[in-house]
Automatic annotation (TrEMBL):
SUPFAM superfamilies from the UniProt entry: LuxS/MPP-like metallohydrolase (SSF63411)
Keyword line: Signal
Keyword Signal: yes
Residues in Peptidase M16 N-terminal domain copies: 40-186
Domain Peptidase M16 C-terminal: from-to ranges: 195-366, 639-816
Pfam families: Peptidase_M16, Peptidase_M16_C
Name of this chain's protein: M16 family metallopeptidase
Family stated for the protein in its record: Belongs to the peptidase M16 family.
Amino acid sequence: MKKRALRLVAAIGLALAAGSAMAATNDADVTRATLDNGLRVVIVRDTLAPVVTTEMNYLAGSDEVPAGFPGTAHAVEHMMFRGSPGLSKDQLAAIAANMGGAFNADTTQGVTQYYFVAPAQDLDVALHVQALRMRGVDMDPKEWDKERGAISQEVSRDLSSPDFKFYTQLLAQMFSGTPYAHTPLGTRPSFDKTTAAMLKNFHDTWYAPNNAILVIAGDVDPVATLAKVKAEFGSIARRTLPARPAFAFKPVTAKTVQLPTDNPYGSVYLGYRMPGLTSKDYATALVLGQALGSQRAALAGMRFDGTALFGGFFDQSMPQAGVGMAVGIFPKGGNPRPILARMQAILAEAADKGIDPALVDAAKRNAVADLEFKKNSVDGLANAWSHALAFQGAESPDAIKAAIEAVTPAAVDALAKQTFNPAHAITAILTPESSGKAVAGKGFGGAESFASTPDKPVQLPAWAEQAFAKLDVPKSSLKPVSYTLPNGLRLIVQPETISDTVDLYGAVQTNQDLQAPKGEEGVADVLDGLFPFGTEQMDRLAFQQALDAISAHESAGTSFSLAVPSAHFAEGVKLLAANELHPALPAQAFAVVQQQVAGAAAGVLQSPGFLFEQGLGKALLPANDPSLRHPTPQNVMALTLDKVKAYYAQTFRPDLAIIVVVGKVDPAQAKNVIEQAFGDWKAQGPKPDTNYGAVPPNRPGKLHVPDASAVQDSVDMAQTIAVTYDDPARFAINLGNQVLGGGFYASRLTRDLREKHGLVYTVGVGLDARRHRGTYTVSFGCDPDKVAAASALVVQDLKQMQQQPVTDAELKQAKGILLRRIPLGESSFGAIGGQLLTLSQQGKPLDAMTVAGQHYLELTAPEVQQAFAKYVRPDGLVTAVKGPAPKD
């Protein structure tokens, strides 16, 4: 299932109260209660959009698994989607699909989460499903045999990542003798030995109300919601829980790991054991990590002085312990040893002399500000409470804020001295290796035949049938205000009051492939690498210090952004405009970035990922199509700073720029601030066309790109398609794609490739429609001996879409998915900003999602069939495979 990286989030609310079922406490928009059976409940009202997130956190994960069976909790998570008493797997899949939102789960060391993100109108359905699955789960051995195939594919996928391979070795070395010595993923050998009875025993042991925390966030009535929770969960009996596993950490013994990687660059890691989420020192560790990862700190400085392509520090924290990791990136063919020595020296100095107090202060302020930014998402708000309560054992997210504010420079220095001991460091060097040349594919695809027929229509339970009976176009909660400034820049403002922050999203519509002179491929990459070096008035350190002073996050370039507390909106925009319109572009920095981009290009050209993408592109597109242009080391090294400046002057134009502002700001105020900062920006010459031209249909073909580091094949089956983002046919294709690939188990491709045959872990289908061209792609990952069978099923399912109309149930479900996704696109500042920016770039009205909803509502099954018959060519696909050679 999906692995969500949870971070510390939203600082709101008070302590989780213990008490009887209805002895809830309320504080502003937070309602807390503990039912008589021990289920803890937090309800956080958030009116950003008519959306709700429910997260059921079971306080059991891979820590609690039987010895020798590291993936038991992960396997139980999978089997939770195969039905429960009173709810079959087909009904569950259909319900999840009809809800249209995210319905998934993730397994970590100490917590397993099950979550819905859905329209608020579907809260009753989400709660009922969560309650049924707490009461019991079907563990049919035949169903486990099927799911074992899918989960094995997930293991193969992750083990195809060299970074994940290193991570497994790091955990084994750093946490030997404890449950943390293995990842929650599991292994194929352990799954082969796992039985359905073992999985049922794990569920029945740990999935108890008194071992769970339910978090609900969104546009809901807290009192009514709590009553629903009591009605659904109140009668579930509490259970006696076994003892938790003990953690007796041994001193870490230094070790060096060397692995090949299929990435176009190499990586150097220095890993150290750090305090965990429940430690009294966790906030100190958080501040330490942010200070070391600052753009003003020495690790990041490796990028700016040319030592490395990138440098930084990150951490992953588990309840009982964490991992702190310094990282340096080097180009293919580069020497990692100087980078490793520099990283070791930086951390040794941190241990010996401590951390610059100014960086500690900035890290604290930024960490606290980030908590406020996390309020800008309904999903993020639920994560905030889940993380604080289930993962950290804290009373509330506010407790995290208080702990951060209490951190002192002395405490940070003491932790650095304790942590960064070279005798306890795990070192890894991942060296890029070249791919074999792409070759025409032989012996895979289209060989098998399956007599698969559509499953019978699923009869939903009455409570679900009633909830999904009527389809409507949701009413948008957005009321954006649009301006066009005298210089042609378009500004869109969506006021929101959910937090004291403002997010800005911007883009300049450029296209290096169409605008860079011949022989200057890579000029845009060099330009992008120069923006972080500051402005004409401030060098990079002074510029970053100014951002830190107002707790702002900023990036400049063809895509630019700003996240800033609302009180500092004007200051933040002024800094962004200075970086965007008056970048420093210093000669010394140009030499550094030029070498970095050239070195990166050398690795990219020999990497499996590039050869896969380029090979597929050449198979789909005419020779010399501009999208096939790419930088070479020679092109990049032939550039001059004057050429980079000329490209910047030519392509950065206000009449091709769009800015979207979302947050606590008045539209008129935002217009005034943006006009003052960007109003003097002028365009020169006629406006260029930055869109690729139309292309003819491609010929069918096969392509294999060797990737020695992968154990699983990555497969794209693609073709050009004569559907653009202005073509009305896109609505019918999108709707049909939901039948094929939407709604989790309820889609045809997932049912045929995963559910029935266990060939893949996930399969996706998508239409990439642009102004003058489109691409249609089906993607999946599977073992080499399963490529032929999986690709044959894809072709079969596409042909079936052309040969007969989809069923009424499938059509209704697909419409429900797309219609219910409309409010989900308004449930975070990022989603709102991205949606408004994309619509503006495509020249569409800002209410285009509502217009699209009406199209989806009115579409018929024959119209979907006709669109697939006219535009999709099942026998015209190019099948591209990256990984081991496919087998017959």
